[in-house]
């Protein structure tokens, strides 16, 4: 069991500043959904470092990211399963 | 033009992996992507085994976004942590022996210039402080003295991270490490000064606290190396394992070190400056 980053889309979509995406050390892990104007996490790539939490809390000042148990995610988005297909991202990530 | 290099022969799409298809259709080839677009395009870097929260990982990721033409780039690395990620990019990678990266890069760049007369090929060395300032030191210096046209990027975590914490020439005096239990007894090497003395055309020192700046510095360094002469980037990319930095604090540490002793610094020759200006003028004229 381990913690992964989880983005509250209601908070994020108010600004969708994209700062966390630029500071996550892992490539294509925090993705951006154009339709829902929100960032979301590909959990299979998240290493749980919490850097994004500090970025959203202190730099963006939005407090939209929390670390949660991976087992608490209802339908986690996994990039290795879904592929990088932005045209399919429609705000339905958990 | 250049996306042709990786495009799939019609009919073969169904045999290619998802990752490859995504890269061809939604990757940065042939289009210069911006840092602000990250999360909206398929990056050339795939999953890799570097530690969680490693600043070096972040720096490598940003470097890949900064490369002006990933499709015409060859990366050279060596033993050390960085190659764990560098080998997972869709950019040709040469694993130099520990110490000979800049000798390999010199030969490669010259060879590419002979082979591809009409197409600029960029050669970029990315290796650790141990690899470049200690064991690879003479090859680095001689590539600069000979004015070899490629970029050297030092991933300066101020320690031998991959082998468990020995001091390097780039470790700060007094730093306590597993394999330097009494503290390092000598000063950090002045590689920036050495680069200046040997006539490197563009020198930059930075940390990953400003992603847009990282990409822009990499772009400048690679462009200048294409036409003018050797370029050098020295980047503070902390090892959170050997320096015991909790991962949520990695960027706080980078900001702190940046403020104290690793501030952003750029040294550019007149010739290199004139070349960058000519690129800007040409771009504006196109618009
Ligand atoms: C000729 C040679 N000597 C020693 C080694 C063992 N070795 C592998 S990685 C490494 C240290 C890497 O340190 P650095 O270059 O600073 O990179 P980092 O791992 O810190 O990123 C060493 C000594 C080797 N691979 N080849
Ligand atoms: S930093 Fe916070 S508000 Fe900005 S895109 Fe990321 S999650 Fe959304
Ligand atoms: S916890 Fe770390 S790896 Fe996971 S999304 Fe946040 S910054 Fe990226
Ligand atoms: S050992 Fe240090 S430098 Fe190497 S991947 Fe881990 S944190 Fe990064």
What can be said about this structure in brief?
The complex is a heterodimer of chains A (94) and B (287). With 94 residues, chain A is α+β, with helices and mostly antiparallel strands.
Structure write-up:
- Chain A is α+β, with helices and mostly antiparallel strands and 94 residues long.
- Chain A is built from 4 helices and 4 strands; from the N terminus they run βααββαβα.
- In chain A, the strands form 2 sheets. Chain A has a two-stranded antiparallel sheet with strand order 1-4.
- In chain A, strand 2 (30-33) and strand 3 form a beta hairpin.
- The mean pLDDT of chain A is 94.
- Chain B has a single domain (44-286), classed as Rossmann fold (3-Layer(aba) Sandwich), CATH 3.40.50.970.
- In chain B, strand 1 (73-77), helix 3 and strand 2 form a beta-alpha-beta unit.
- The radius of gyration of chain B is 19 Å and the shape is globular.
- The two termini of chain B are 20 Å apart.
- At the A-B interface, helix 2, strand 2 and helix 3 of A face helix 1, helix 2 and helix 9 of B.
- The complex binds thiamine diphosphate and iron/sulfur cluster (SF4) (3 copies).
- The site of one iron/sulfur cluster has 13 residues of chain A, from helix 3.
Secondary-structure class of chain A: alpha+beta
The CATH architecture designation of chain B is: 3-Layer(aba) Sandwich
Q: Any idea of the CATH topology of chain B?
A: Rossmann fold
Q: Which architecture of chain A would the CATH scheme give at its second level?
A: 2-Layer Sandwich
Q: Mean pLDDT of chain B, nearest integer?
A: 96
**Bound ligands, each once:** thiamine diphosphate, iron/sulfur cluster
**Structural class designation of chain B:** alpha/beta
Task: Give the DSSP E fraction of chain B (strand runs of 2 or more residues).
Answer: 5-15%
Mean pLDDT of chain A: 94
Q: What brief labels describe this structure?
A:
A: 94 residues; alpha+beta; two-stranded antiparallel ribbon; two-stranded antiparallel sheet; 4 strands; 27% helix; B: 287 residues; alpha/beta; Rossmann fold; 7-stranded mixed sheet; 13% strand; binds thiamine diphosphate; binds iron/sulfur cluster
């Amino acid at each position: 069991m381990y913690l992964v980053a989880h983005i509250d889309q209601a908070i994020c979509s108010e600004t969708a500043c994209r700062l966390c995406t630029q500071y996550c050390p892992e490539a294509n892990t925090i993705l951006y959904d154009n339709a829902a104007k929100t960032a979301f996490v590909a959990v299979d790539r998240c290493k749980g470092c919490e850097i994004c939490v500090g970025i959203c809390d202190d730099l963006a000042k939005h407090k939209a990211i929390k670390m949660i148990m991976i087992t608490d995610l209802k339908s986690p988005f996994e990039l290795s399963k879904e592929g990088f297909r932005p045209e399919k991202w429609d705000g339905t990530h958990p | 033009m250049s996306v042709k290099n990786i495009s799939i022969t019609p009919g073969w799409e169904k045999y290619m992996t998802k990752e490859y298809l995504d890269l061809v259709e939604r990757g940065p080839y042939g289009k210069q992507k911006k840092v602000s677009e990250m999360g909206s395009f398929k990056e050339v870097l795939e999953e890799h085994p570097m530690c969680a929260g490693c600043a070096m990982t972040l720096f490598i990721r940003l470097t890949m976004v900064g490369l002006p033409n990933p499709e015409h780039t060859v990366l050279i690395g060596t033993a050390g942590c960085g190659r764990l990620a560098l080998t997972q990019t869709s950019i040709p990678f040469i694993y130099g022996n520990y110490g000979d990266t800049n000798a390999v890069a010199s030969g490669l760049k010259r060879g590419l210039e002979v082979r591809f007369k009409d197409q600029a090929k960029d050669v970029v060395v990315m290796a650790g402080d141990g690899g470049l300032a200690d064991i690879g030191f003479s090859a680095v210096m001689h590539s600069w003295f000979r004015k070899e046209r490629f970029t050297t990027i030092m991933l300066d975590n101020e320690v031998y991270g991959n082998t468990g914490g020995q001091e390097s020439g780039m470790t700060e005096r007094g730093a306590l490490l597993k394999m330097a239990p009494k503290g390092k007894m000598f000063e950090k090497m002045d590689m920036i000064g050495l680069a200046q003395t040997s006539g490197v055309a563009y020198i930059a020192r930075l940390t990953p606290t400003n992603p847009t700046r990282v990409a822009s510095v990499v772009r400048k360094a690679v462009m200048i190396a294409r036409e003018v002469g050797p370029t050098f980037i020295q980047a503070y990319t902390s090892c959170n394992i050997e320096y015991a930095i909790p991962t949520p604090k990695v960027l706080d540490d980078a900001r702190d070190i940046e403020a104290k002793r690793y501030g952003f610094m750029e040294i550019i020759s007149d010739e290199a400056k004139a070349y960058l200006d000519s690129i800007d003028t040409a771009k504006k004229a196109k618009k």
